[in-house]
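Thread: Newbie trying to understand structure tokens

Hi all, I'm a second-year student working on a class project, and my supervisor (Dr. K.) asked me to get a predicted structure for one chain before our next meeting. I've only ever worked with sequences, so writing a 3D structure as a token string is new to me. If someone could post the tokens and maybe explain what I'm looking at, I'd be very grateful. Here's the chain:
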Amino acid sequence: MGLLLYAAVWLLHLAYTSLSPPTDNIEQLTWVHSLEWGYYKHPPLPTWLIWVPAQVFGANAWTSYVTGAAFTLGSIGLLWSLLSRLKGPTYASLAALAMLGIAYYNGRLHYYNYNVVPMFCATASLSLCWKAHTTGQLRWWAVLGVALGLGALAKYQIAVTMASVLAFWLHQRGWRDARQRTGLLLAALIVLAILVPHLLWLRTHDFGPIEYAMKSSLGAPLGTEARWVEALHWLTDQLLNRAVPAWLLIAAAAFAARGRAAPTSTAAWMAIDLRSDASARALLLVWGFVPLIFMPTVGIVFGADLQLQWGTPFLLFAVPAAMELASRRITWSRVPLRPALNSFVLIQALLLVLSTSRRRAGRKRCVTTIGGLSTAKRWPRCWSSRQDARSPGVTSVFSRVPVHRPAHWHCN
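---
Reply by user tm_fold:
Sure, no problem. This is what the structure looks like when written as tokens:
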């Protein structure tokens, strides 16, 4: 219920203050008219997944907003469920409140694109990796392979999650156990099997998404110094910009926990479930820090122009990782949730005020040029489904003005 209220507040705010849907949403609502095994920029899964909502509710902005929010909040809810089993309900609730403060998961809650679907796949892979590790059963390794394979059909960046699985497997010395060895191989084969149709599509379509990635970011001709600067900038932006509200909430909760005894229910949970605490700690640290190492390394080694939004699928995992680093000094089970919830409400209110101010300022600067004539767009929502006279049979979703000549957006 709390997540539904959170989604309602932010989606209404974002819909009212946005001049148009995000470009990524428009792309998906355009591609959904033709289901393929790939598109010129990205693999096909995000487009497939929005097909059913688009058929039921129409290919409109709100369909994309709700679908994007469902994947984002579903990821956080899935991670909360795992943390509740590993660390207890207080720890999980505090982590979830902190995650919701990260910029990707509030100010971009209405985005539906190739970042939010891999985030869900990465979170599911985390939970399945734990099940595969603790049970050793091949069925969990098989399901993990499915999750990773679907993640690869969403975005090739799922390689970061694959690296996390391998890092945890190595840390736990999985090579010593025949079941773990067989399980890892089974998961890899399932990933490959799921990818085969897309790989065949790539071959017959000149490897379009890969060529796009090379031309837009991965193939950026950055010099040695620029690579290090860009990598540092990306990492700093993730931890000291996007995630600052999360750190503020965690700090406020830690301050409120001083001198308090653990609640009886939490203490009882701790007495029951400390058998695999070391492995759980390793899992959370690996999932939190591997992406923060992997992405800058790609930038430094390959000279890639790291896009800031590439942190979307993985930055939520930095929260429990940071809590684990602080757990030597802070007993998170002692944190009273009411002060943490009060801090959460205050932080969210401030974020809403900042978002409103920023969007109003942006609206004043944004004009559209139609046939050489500039007109200011003052309405909050300038989208609807219409038939584009320039491309018969193609539905456009970003303007409610009949356009017979190319329209270009300019934001100064």
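A couple of things are worth pointing out once you decode it. The longest helix spans residues 337-365. Strands lie at 366-370, 373-376, 386-387, 395-396, 407-411. Feel free to ask follow-ups in this thread.
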